[in-house]
Amino acid sequence: MSTPAPISRSYFSLATIIMCCLWSIGVQGVEPKVADNTQQYLPKGVAASLEKNQIPTDAISISVVEIQGGRPGKANSKTQLDWRAKEPMNPASTMKLLTTLTGLDVLGPEYRWRTKLFTDGTIKQGTLRGNIYLQGTGDPKLIPEEFAKMMKAIQNLGIQKIDGDLYFDRSAYAPSVMEHNTIDGESLRAYNVPPDPLLYAFRTLSFQLGKSRTADFIDIEYTPKLSQLKIINQMQLIDRSCENWKSNLRFNLDSDGGTDSTNQNLSAVFSGGFPKDCKGVNYNVVAMDANTFLTQGFAAAWELAGGSWAQTPIGRSGNVPLAARLLLQFEGIKLADNVFDINKFSNNVMARQLLLTLALEKMGKPATTENGNTVIQSWLKEQGLEFPELVIENGSGLSRTEAISAQHLNQVLVTARNLSVGDIFYNSLPIAGKDGTMKNRLMAHLRKFLHLKKKPEARIKTGSLTDVRAISGYVMSKSGRLYAVSSFINHPNAWKGLEAHDQLLAWLLDDGPEPKQAR
Q: pTM score, two decimals?
């Protein structure tokens, strides 16, 4: 993802100025002692990487804290490294850690979102004669598998045919939070999908493209199924590298020009070239308005379940009438599972909807980002935490203005170890070399520990924007020490900062902050 973000202002302490001067004359690895016993130095591998990639030492902040006790309810901490850790920085997606921990503790890991279905009609001989009204509360994972369960629940009411249209009640959210504003102009990219109380399948069409196993042509499948979408495949196989497969692909979504967009026949047209050596890729696009996507998704799910329509339904926005009666209350997957997806895969819209859910549950509807911010600030106060530099725009980190210090984000990590939801939160973080956004990180370094019975690990939330790279999470070292680590790079060369952050994590895996290093 490429999105611009601000560079935080730098405030130089005397120790920082001395360090910068020493680096300018080639002296590295100096570890000055400071009065409050925090350790202000850069590990040599980190410093060397920054220098090589032309990232100034005043563009990075690092906080490393050893968590002693480690188990929920018994953790205390000791600062091991503090490099500009108090500076407010743009944290990118590591901001999701604050949102998800607050959500787990305030709402509880068993919390489930509710989607209610109402009708103004009656059921006779297996046919519902009347409209269906869907009223959402922001379920962030209302996906095809969940829709299949919903359709089964409708059939269990004795309904096999629906003779009516669909209405969508989005009154749970203030209109302003549903506006499709982006910080990079990429409105068709899945990471920019705006919040929606009736968000279906992230409002994203996911096409799977690959060479057919049985013939010389390209197979194209897609999810979720839409009732009036067909694929027109005009692509040709070409001899090119799979690495840049998108460069030769052209995509258009055409409609038949019907009077109502939710009742139009749609054609997904693929043309151009596709590398014949590609085994399979995903092409994700946000290509239609929310009502069309939800209408055709609901209709397709109903048909896949064996249901039928008296006529093709039209979908419209509209609040539930007072006279309508409740047909069904559908409950989605539990919050703990949603948090797993938010943190492992850095899902922006799921994080944004969690922030709005905090607002909705604690301050009522319509939910606003400001009210979500208020709930988080109140939770921090209950934990005895005060973060004066904290700026929350949407809770996902997809923002130019969100800010927090490395020291305070580390305090969030330490606090988590003293909460009953601490292990759920810990397990939601990507594991280096294994899964999520850390799947391909530190693999070579981790091979050093294959012989150990108890292997060290790094569970790290990552963040990236243009001009920002960030990491925050836990490292279990080779000797069994548990560290909380947060580090932000805010600089035009931040995209080169992955190496410096990997050097920092490798240093911690190797028990870098040994007591002998404190001078």
A: 0.90
